[in-house]
Amino acid sequence: MSKNVGKALESAIKDPDNIKSPGKTSEDARIFENNIRRNIFSLLTFHPCLGMKDISDILNVSDTTVKWHIGKLVASEYLVERKFGHKRSVWPEGQIDDEDVNVFCVLSSKKTKALFIKIIKDPGMTQKEYASDFDMTHQGLSIIVNKLIGIGLVSVMSEGTHTRYYPTRLLAELSESKYDRTKAFRDFIIEKLRSGGENPKIIKSSNDRLILEIGHKTEIHVMDIGLDPFSTALEI
């Protein structure tokens, strides 16, 4: 079990029918009244480790605004923030295991994600062919593809003087194997919202998505929460 998973989430995974509410802090009080904050959290549930600049571009808000709201979400323990390589990455508390963080951090790079999607669509091409399509040097492409190989998303086959790349089933396999964590994350979020003064009402719940109404009386907001980020990692 990850060291970063709270006791409430550990309890949920072991016994999801007997979950205890996370402790309420001053930072929890109606934290999702703010629309930008809701959108940032929602986006990160579908795409953990997405870079702040990408979040800024997608939501059309400033980098400074994104950073400030992420700070609030980290302080309220809705997000985890840790250094990954040369940058800091954030992802929803309890959504993914430590050993899976690398997958999302690597795919947070636009070039890396684009190359991986190309390998999925056109498997078995040579390094030269991929490099030509992306207008990259062989060395530049090797650096990116080696990251995909290193986390198990791409396999290599040598054919004479050619090296060909193929996608693995890692994302699908991780999605299939994380049912208990997905269910625990769903319960964890609902109970944490309740402990923070919200009144979450489930509008839709499936294996990969949770849509909630939160708030009170005339202040009703909708939250769209991704539960299975392995199935949505390549969507943007």
Please identify which CATH superfamily of the largest domain we are dealing with: Winged helix-like DNA-binding domain superfamily/Winged helix DNA-binding domain
Beta-strand residue percentage: 15-25%
Count structural domains: 2
What oligomeric state is this? single chain
CATH top level of the largest domain is Mainly Alpha
Q: In terms of per-residue confidence, which ranges show pLDDT below 50 for 5 or more consecutive residues?
A: 1-9, 11-27
Distance between the termini: 30 Å
Q: Which bin fits the share of residues in helices?
A: 40-55%
**What's the arrangement of strands in the largest beta sheet?**
5-6-7
Structural class: alpha+beta
Calculate Rg over CA atoms.
19 Å
CATH architecture of the largest domain: Orthogonal Bundle
Total number of strands: 7
In one word, what is the shape?
A: elongated
Q: What is the helix tally?
A: 11
The largest sheet is:
3 strands, antiparallel
Overall pLDDT score: 87
Write down the CATH topology of the largest domain: Arc Repressor Mutant, subunit A
* H-E order: HHHHEEHHHHEEHHEEEH
